[in-house]
Design brief:
Blueprint (H helix, E strand, L loop, with lengths): L3 H5 L4 E4 L2 E4 L4 E6 L2 E10 L3 H19 L3 H17 L1 H12 L3 H20 L7 E3 L6 E9 L2 E5 L7 H12 L3 E5 L6 H12 L7 E3 L4 H10 L3 E7 L2 H13 L3 E5 L4 E5 L5 H13 L9 E7 H16 L19 H16 L3 E2 L15 E4 L6 H4 L6 E7 L2 H9 L3 E2 L1 E5 L3 H10 L4 E4 L14 E2 L2 E2 L8 H5 E9 L9 E4 L2 E4 L7
Length: about 500
């Protein structure tokens, strides 16, 4: 089990070379969003020296870890998964305390993290190359995948366990070493996970965790030439900055960015089932998910019925602390997020939207009542900006043509959903909608072995999860192996285009 030191976290330290390393950086309090008087921990706003030490440790550990057989690396990741399972309840309560999400969601997130981790562990036996027929006698041509090097992983606050695991596990299984910068709002879960990975047998320096502000620590990681690739999850605005910084030094990027995900409801035998799917996808993590359904497009003929069911459902969702029995909607992560969400709703009403859910009494603090805004038009701010809270907009449309046009009329392209029994309509929606993931007759819920990502301003680089991880965390090397003398030097051999010299030169 997690020891008391890990759970309480020794204040003001980073995790470097498998040890807690003090920092001279200013201490930053992490607060429980459900209780402003509860200081969960104090982490450093790390200095450039801290970041340099972490990168140096990862760089030194790289040759040994890259030389460790893939299946052996997989064994360590499986032990990590086992330790997460043994400590699941403690980790879940820590996550809820620092992020605010309902305890049931925290437990579910850890289960999901373990599933992604176990898939990644299996990749250790699937690091495949190819053989390619050579035009030269006595020569073997083949490809192999090798690690890209030291990877910087920069993760958001809304998924304190899944986000780090989603980057650490594939990076490690393919032989890379990692410097992780978790979000400053929720760093403690990541630090606890790092300690468990050490206990699973990970060698020193293979994973290092430095905390701090993105403007300092994140910037240094993106600009350091020793970092071969940056895997970032967060806002599109910050992602653009990361992309520009890494591109200047020709590094690799994997960016999971924002979304303004729509669900189009064309028809359904049971609108209550549709409303339940939409609600689940929209309200998890208090709507603070990049894949949350935030706007619903519904055919005019069934709009009144669907809005009535959604309004009834959302009006009964229990709001409260994440560790309280029955809580479905926890607090927002901080005051800035509360101000942002309430501001968007106020602006939406001023622009003509109709609030259908009551402005009911909720606990004091960082809570916001689940809100549905009806009669939202495509040009309203709430229809275009990522709100990141428990807010759902309703836009009434005439047909699928209008729906597809509105779905695509956004800078984002992460996920979309369609509800209909008409297979031709579903296939057309899936084909014409510009999004990385399409969900048919269910909410925007992904699976732990299936590629995850978006297009347009929702993502850059290889998708995460599943088989596409290899596209970012490895690079291809081509080997030409002359294993016998074959033809004599300069001797011609037959080829379709004429004479080919045995050194591979085509005289044409």
């Amino acid at each position: 089990m997690l020891d008391q030191q890990t759970l309480e976290y020794p204040h003001g330290v980073n995790f470097i070379n498998n040890a807690w390393v003090p920092s001279s950086g200013e201490g930053v309090e992490t607060l429980n969003p459900a209780d402003k008087d509860d200081i969960v921990g104090i982490v450093p706003d790390s200095t450039p020296e801290d970041v340099d030490a972490a990168i140096t440790a990862a760089e030194r550990a790289l040759p040994g870890w890259a030389g460790t057989p893939g299946p052996v690396r997989g064994d360590i990741l499986r032990r990590w998964s086992d330790l997460i399972g043994e400590n699941l309840e403690d980790l879940a309560r820590l996550m809820t305390r620092e992020m605010g999400k309902p305890l049931a969601e925290s437990r579910g997130e850890l289960g999901r993290a373990r599933m992604e981790l176990e898939y990644a562990a299996g990749e250790g036996t699937r690091i495949h190359g190819t053989t390619i027929p050579s035009r030269t006698p006595g020569q073997l041509v083949y490809t192999e995948r090798e690690p890209i090097g030291v990877v910087a992983a920069i993760t958001p606050w809304n998924f304190p366990a899944v986000a780090p695991v989603r980057k650490i596990a594939p990076a490690l299984i393919f032989g890379n070493t990692v410097v992780l910068k978790p979000a400053l709002e929720t760093p403690l879960t990541a630090l606890a996970l790092a300690a468990l990975l050490r206990d699973a047998g990970l060698p020193e320096g293979v994973l290092n965790v430095v905390t701090g502000r993105g403007s300092k620590v994140g910037t240094q990681l993106t600009e350091d030439r020793r970092i071969a690739g940056v895997s970032f999850t967060g806002s599109t605005g910050v992602g653009r900055t990361v992309n520009e910084a890494v591109a200047r030094r020709m590094g690799a990027v994997q960016l999971e960015l924002g979304g303004k995900n729509a669900a189009y409801v064309h028809s359904a035998e049971d609108l209550r089932t549709v409303a339940a799917e939409i609600t689940s996808a929209a309200i998890q993590a208090t709507g603070q998910r990049c894949t949350s359904i935030s706007r619903v497009l519904v055919r005019e003929e069934i709009a009144d019925d669907l809005v009535a069911i959604l309004t009834e459902t959302w009006s009964g969702l229990q709001v409260g602390p994440g560790d309280a029995e029955g809580t479905v909607v926890g607090p927002l992560v901080n005051h800035a997020q509360l101000t942002k969400v309430s501001g968007y709703v106020r602006q939406g009403i001023e622009e003509g939207a109709l609030r259908t859910t009551p402005d009911r009494q909720i606990p004091d603090g960082l809570y916001y009542a689940p809100t549905i805004l009806d009669h939202v038009t495509r040009d309203m701010t709430v229809a275009r900006e990522e709100i990141f809270g428990p807010v759902l907009t309703i836009t009434r449309v005439k047909d699928v043509d209008e729906a597809i046009d509105i779905v695509n009329d956004t800078d984002y392209g992460l996920a979309a959903a369609v509800f209909s029994e008409d297979l031709d309509l579903v296939m057309r929606f899936s084909r014409e909608t510009r999004a990385g993931m399409i969900h048919v007759n269910h909410g925007t819920v992904s699976q732990p072995h299936v590629p995850f990502g978006g297009v347009k301003e929702s993502g850059v680089g290889a998708f995460s999860i599943g088989l596409t991880n290899a596209d970012f965390f490895t690079q291809t090397k081509v080997v030409y192996l002359k294993h016998s003398s074959g033809s004599q030097p300069g001797q011609a051999v037959s080829g379709r285009r004429g004479l080919i010299l045995d050194n591979g030169t085509d005289p044409a």
